[in-house]
Amino acid sequence: MIELSNQELCVSGKIDFSNAEQYYQKGIQLIRQQQLPLVVNLANLEQGSTLALAVLVQWLRQTPEAKGLQFKAVPEKMMKIIQACHLQDDLKLIA
Fold it and tell me: CATH number for the domain including 20?
């Protein structure tokens, strides 16, 4: 599930092959309605998989100069994937 709360895009649940497109579409819809940069809060994301990371990267690519999103509370597994893929310079990660 994705919702706006306190001017953050809060992502919760598990992104998998059965719902990744729905997460992507709902996220894009909400992102386009907000002023950028926008914080994406991942504190309630159940699993930081490569598929979930792919959805986040696709959202980022839809923002001006691919710099409109800031990612917060990135799950440990996803952080390891980000580091292994050398994406930490491309993704704006905040505490």
Answer: 3.30.750.24
DSSP sequence for 53-82: HHHHHHHHHTSGGG-SEEEES--HHHHHHH
How many independent structural domains does the chain possess? 1
pLDDT digits (tens, 9 = 90+) for 29-53: 999 999 999 999 999 999 899 999 9
With a threshold of 0.85, does the pTM exceed it? yes
Is the peptide bond preceding residue 75 cis, with omega within 30 degrees of 0?
no
Nearest to 76 by CA among 46, 40, 55: 46
Using alpha carbons only, what angle is made at residue 21 by residues 80 and 67, rounded to the nearest 5 degrees?
55
